[in-house]
Design a protein that fits this description.
The chain is mostly helical. The protein is built from 5 helices and no strands. The protein starts with 7 loop residues before the first helix and ends in an 18-residue tail after the last helix.
């Protein structure tokens, strides 16, 4: 549409984005042609909120321990233990199919039969 001489504002209305987005696309096309138009530039996009080491710690604690005096971890107890929000713990558990409330409580028992 730009090659046909149409204004950025008109193109924006047709494709459903802001005029600033169209201007950005046009500037990027002028820089890189089509070669990199669909790629996200380095440093752009959503940044990881929690480092992988913290995720690994949450998964390890969930699978191999339990809070003292409790049968299983809750999102709140885990969040308090590792210093993240309960919502982040819930997302990590959901992404990995972890359900600590369904874990057999005898798994962590000191009973020699298990």
């Amino acid at each position: 549409m730009a090659a046909e001489g149409l204004a950025s504002e008109w193109i924006a209305g047709v494709v459903g984005v802001s005029p600033a987005t169209v201007r950005s696309w046009r500037a990027r096309f002028a820089e890189d042609c089509l070669a990199h138009l669909g790629e996200v530039r380095p440093g752009r996009g959503r940044k990881p909120v929690i480092p992988q080491s913290k995720i690994d710690e949450i998964v390890d604690l969930t699978r191999n321990s339990r809070p003292e005096g409790q049968t299983h971890w809750s999102v709140r107890t885990m969040a308090a233990k590792v210093g993240v929000s309960p919502a982040q713990v819930q997302r990590i558990w959901a992404a990995r199919g972890l359900k600590p409330h369904l874990v057999d409580t005898f798994k962590h028992s000191n009973d020699p039969r298990f």
